[in-house]
Task: inverse folding
């Protein structure tokens, strides 16, 4: 497993726990000893980036997740989308296809049988409209 895949999974763990406990992912990240966070630099970048852009990321999920309220969406799927959307929209050094592929593969491993296709569809729509999405 690549270092970035491990960082994404670690980020997913933190975001999932924060969602479940109703606490800030940034606060949760601060509580973790640095050696507990494998691939800490990229995981930290992801957690902080998702937190910084959470309003816009959640707005995009709400807009493109046709027929699903954020509260009804599986927590794993919601947070995989958050990670991938951050990578697609704010990580210039990462190809969009890699962000999608990683989110889909992790969904296949950890979520429902329909999650991978659903996540792929939402991320695909965002990528198609990326040039017209306002990030402010």
Result:
């Amino acid at each position: 497993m690549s270092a970035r895949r491990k960082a994404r999974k670690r980020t997913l763990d933190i975001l999932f726990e924060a969602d479940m406990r109703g606490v800030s992912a940034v606060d949760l990240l601060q509580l973790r000893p640095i050696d507990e966070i494998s691939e800490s630099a990229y995981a930290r970048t992801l957690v902080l980036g998702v937190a910084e852009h959470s309003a816009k990321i959640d707005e995009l999920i709400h807009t493109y997740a046709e027929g699903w309220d954020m509260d009804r969406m599986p927590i794993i799927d919601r947070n995989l989308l958050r990670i991938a959307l951050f990578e697609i929209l704010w990580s210039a050094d990462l190809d969009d296809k890699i962000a999608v592929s990683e989110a889909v593969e992790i969904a296949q491993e950890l979520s429902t049988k329909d999650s991978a296709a659903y996540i792929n569809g939402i991320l695909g729509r965002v990528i198609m409209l990326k040039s017209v999405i306002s990030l402010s």
